[in-house]
Structure to design on (909 residues):
């Protein structure tokens, strides 16, 4: 199983080297990878249908509890088949769709990476590795949305999608850690057994909120749905694969996976029903106001995702069965519609539904696929969509006192989904063919065959629902903690209320389609409400956050060296001063241990003091620099008096060089300005004096502390014995702590290279400007 | 600052100061001194020369960019650090000593070469910084 997951990644890496060969006619061969995986996963159907769970475990980072544990149960198998099956068709389709594209190899690389990540996500039994694959899907989605990287809109959508799904990933990690902490394990299958402990824990609500945050962002639930229409900037194969059939269902997968662990509580069900209900209806209404085919499909996808969340929220055995069936239904018809839209776009160059008509005359097989998919999305018998819709109504009708409201919402949504399906699958093909499209022709079979296969599958499964109920749906229902043995899908339930509701849906839907025509006018009308749409609010929040950070940064990073220095010193004074005065009762300074000041010390102090007054009162830089130098030399004298000749020598040389450096740059500095008024000077004075006092106090206190002399004694005792040196300071530098010294000279070198390159590069640029 | 006195003096000062810096470097193991101070003194010698005669003259005198002293010094220090691994199989930075003693330098050992490396790096760093700044100023 690990090989199966890794094969996507290996394929991507392989393309880095062999990409050239896959750009031309061989491109279609890349679809063999998902095909092989599809067959591999098909072979597990009998075992999984018998209720077996196939497990594999590989240790990765055992110390973090992070292992590559994989488990293949009904739910994972359903998703794996979707990922590899639709993946196979999309890979083949892409070979024709992006034929001759410069970066076709790169595209396949991203697709392969996505496929691997998605498989890893649905097969992981370890919550942490699941999180890693979850993030990988977000990242590959980012690359695929931004595939047309020369278009600004595409880059923006890619960033938006990454921001939303990425923050969802962050929530998932937080939720996973909490969950792991409460359960004491990261294994999801072990968590199922610990469900009661988790639900009773005080963190239960937080875990649910975090998991919901992850699922809602990934599966585009209101109010995080807006990244999905933006993601339609990606090439159509991507929209088909990631943003309709698989990746956006990762959130659904997460919710289904955690239903047996976290489900059954009020907060779980109510939230899901509310959010799912709002999403499915809100997005379905939006489809009425779109004229871009992919826009219509994007909103109807969001709506279906809403239905799925809603069904998981209902949480009954019927509802979960309905969810499982609906995932299959939706994957079959929505992928078809997307592929059909891609063909239309590819051949006519437009996706504007108000301009498209009559295409059945020029591309009949595509029209058939579109018709079949539209009818399936409408829930016409005998399509699989009908089976799915019936199950939805049956589950809403069971909900007791709320059943009327829930059923009504479900019916309204289904009517609108029907409308969206018809607009995308039927409208472009009916009516009179416009003049401009008479030369449009059918694309190669690589493009039209995949949607036809999917659409026909939708019909076959509808007529023979037993193809999916035993092998696929039943194990899914088992996997989400319900009794799957009662599941039996039927096309015909006899005359009952559900059938009546279905008929009502179809009738109203047909009427809506015939009387309500999409138009640019309507699109403009809804655009007036954009100011209160979640996308405006959230991007607005993002923008104001950026502005706030800019403002905040500018306060501190204002480019004035003097402000930096005073900020740093102020902070030090406050922090160190605070701890100094609160940690002790008073300051323990032992005045009796002080030695008497000698007259030469007094003279040096006097020189220093005078020099400082000169620095502060200087009217030119040179005076200030020289006076600073005097302070430095006075300190050297102090070192000499306290018998530290090494320090004194070094200090002396450093001071000399500093003064020289100053003198060198003086001429290129602007004229000496007195920028501070008296108030500023007073503040600076107080600040520097308090800093001086603080350092003195700290130094005195350090003297008062008992000193552990073991290390310095060791150095002093062993300098000659071990290192044959009498100058202990030097022996420490070149021998005892030689590695430190080596690092220091390396740092010095880096600093010099920094100075050199900064100044030289600046010079060159000036030169270039002069030449221009 | 191209005074005749300073220029004449600097011509004599440069070799004297350089010899002094090497002296400081060599005696470092026994008396105050060492590679760091030695390097600083040597760079002061060159800077003084540059002050008196102009940067161009000093550059001509040096013949190569002082920046090259940095990798050279780092390599010397590094080689002296790993020499015990190569020669005696002892761990990194273990001192290796030549048995006989020399005047001023005292015992000859790997630590001295390490210090020479420090000397070269410090000289290279200081001169590179000062030259770059004074060229762009």
């Amino acid at each position: 199983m690990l090989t199966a997951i890794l094969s996507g990644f290996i394929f991507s890496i392989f393309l880095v080297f062999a990409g050239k060969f896959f750009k031309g006619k061989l491109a279609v061969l890349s679809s063999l990878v998902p095909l092989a995986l599809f067959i591999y996963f098909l072979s597990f159907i009998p075992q999984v249908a018998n209720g077996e769970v196939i497990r594999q475990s590989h240790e990765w980072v055992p110390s973090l509890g992070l292992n590559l544990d994989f488990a293949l149960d009904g739910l994972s198998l359903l998703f794996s088949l979707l990922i590899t099956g639709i993946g196979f068709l999309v890979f083949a389709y892409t070979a024709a769709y992006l034929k001759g594209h410069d970066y076709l190899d790169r595209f396949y690389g991203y697709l392969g990476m996505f496929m691997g990540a998605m498989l890893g996500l649905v097969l992981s039994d370890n919550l942490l590795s699941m999180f890693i694959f979850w993030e990988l899907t977000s990242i590959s989605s980012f690359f695929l949305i931004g595939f047309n990287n020369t278009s600004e809109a595409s880059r923006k959508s890619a960033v938006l999608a990454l921001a939303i799904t990425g923050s969802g990933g962050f929530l998932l990690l937080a939720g996973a850690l909490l969950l792991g902490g409460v359960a004491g394990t990261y294994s999801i299958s072990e968590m199922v057994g610990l469900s009661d402990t988790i639900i009773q824990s005080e963190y239960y609500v937080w875990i649910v909120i975090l998991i919901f945050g992850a699922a809602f962002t990934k599966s585009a639930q209101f109010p995080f749905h807006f990244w999905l229409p933006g993601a339609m900037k990606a090439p159509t194969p991507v929209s088909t694969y990631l943003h309709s059939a698989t990746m956006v269902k990762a959130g659904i997968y997460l919710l289904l996976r955690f239903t047996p662990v976290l489900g059954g509580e009020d907060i779980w069900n109510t939230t899901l029903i509310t959010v799912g209900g709002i999403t499915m209806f809100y997005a379905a209404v939006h489809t009425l106001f779109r004229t871009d085919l992919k826009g219509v499909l994007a909103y109807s996808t969001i709506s279906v995702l809403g239905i799925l969340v809603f069904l998981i929220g209902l949480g009954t055995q019927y509802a979960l069965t309905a969810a499982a069936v609906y995932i299959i239904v939706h994957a079959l018809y929505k992928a078809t519609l997307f592929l059909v839209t891609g063909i239309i776009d590819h051949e006519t160059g437009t996706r504007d539904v108000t301009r498209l008509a009559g295409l059945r005359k020029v591309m009949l097989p595509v029209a058939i696929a579109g018709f079949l998919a539209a009818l399936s999305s409408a829930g016409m018998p005998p399509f699989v969509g009908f089976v799915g819709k019936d199950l939805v109504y049956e589950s809403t009708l069971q909900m007791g006192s709320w059943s009327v409201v829930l059923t009504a919402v479900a019916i309204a949504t289904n009517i609108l989904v029907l409308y969206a399906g018809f607009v995308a699958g039927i409208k472009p093909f009916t009516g009179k063919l416009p003049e401009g499209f008479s030369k449009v022709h059918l694309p190669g079979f690589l493009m039209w065959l995949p949607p036809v296969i999917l659409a026909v599958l939708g019909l076959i499964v509808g007529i023979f629902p037993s193809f999916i109920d035993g092998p696929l749906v039943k194990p899914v229902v088992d996997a989400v903690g319900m009794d799957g043995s009662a599941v039996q899908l039927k096309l015909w339930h006899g005359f009952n209320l559900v059938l009546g509701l279905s008929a009502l849906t179809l009738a109203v839907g047909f009427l809506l389609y015939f009387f309500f025509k999409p138009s640019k006018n309507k699109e403009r009308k809804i655009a007036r409400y954009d100011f209160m749409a979640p996308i405006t609010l959230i991007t607005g929040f993002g923008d104001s956050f950026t502005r706030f950070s800019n403002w905040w940064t500018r306060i501190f990073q204002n480019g004035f060296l003097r402000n930096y220095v005073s900020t740093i010193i102020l902070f030090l004074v406050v922090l160190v001063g605070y701890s100094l005065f609160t940690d002790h009762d008073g300051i323990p300074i032992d005045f009796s241990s002080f030695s008497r000041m000698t007259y030469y010390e007094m003279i040096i102090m006097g020189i220093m003091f005078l020099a400082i007054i000169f620095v502060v009162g200087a009217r030119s830089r040179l005076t200030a620099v020289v006076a600073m130098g005097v302070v430095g030399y006075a300190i050297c004298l102090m070192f000499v008096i306290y018998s530290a000749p090494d320090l004194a020598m070094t200090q002396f040389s450093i001071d000399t060089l500093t003064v020289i450096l100053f003198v060198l740059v003086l001429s290129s500095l602007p004229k000496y300005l007195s920028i501070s008024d008296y108030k500023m000077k007073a503040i600076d004075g107080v600040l520097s004096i308090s800093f001086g006092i603080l350092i003195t106090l700290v130094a005195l206190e350090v003297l008062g502390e008992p000193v552990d002399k073991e290390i310095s004694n060791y150095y002093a005792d062993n300098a000659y014995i071990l290192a044959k040196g009498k100058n202990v300071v030097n022996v420490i530098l070149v021998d005892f702590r030689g590695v430190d010294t080596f690092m220091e000279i390396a740092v010095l070198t880096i600093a010099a290279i920094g100075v050199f390159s900064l100044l030289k590069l600046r010079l060159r640029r000036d030169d270039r400007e002069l030449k221009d | 600052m191209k005074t005749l006195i300073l220029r004449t003096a600097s011509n004599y000062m440069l070799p004297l100061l350089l010899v002094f810096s090497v002296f400081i470097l060599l005696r470092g193991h026994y008396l105050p001194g060492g590679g760091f101070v030695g390097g600083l003194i040597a760079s002061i010698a060159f800077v003084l020369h540059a002050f008196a005669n102009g940067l161009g003259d000093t550059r001509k005198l040096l013949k190569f960019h002082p920046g090259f002293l940095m990798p050279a010094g780092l390599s010397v220090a590094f080689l002296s650090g790993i020499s015990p691994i190569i020669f005696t199989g002892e761990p990194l930075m273990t001192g290796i000593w030549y048995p006989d003693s020399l005047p001023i330098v005292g015992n000859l050992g790997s630590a001295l070469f390490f210090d020479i490396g420090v000397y070269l790096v410090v000289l290279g760093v200081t001169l590179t910084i000062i030259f770059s700044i004074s060229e762009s100023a």
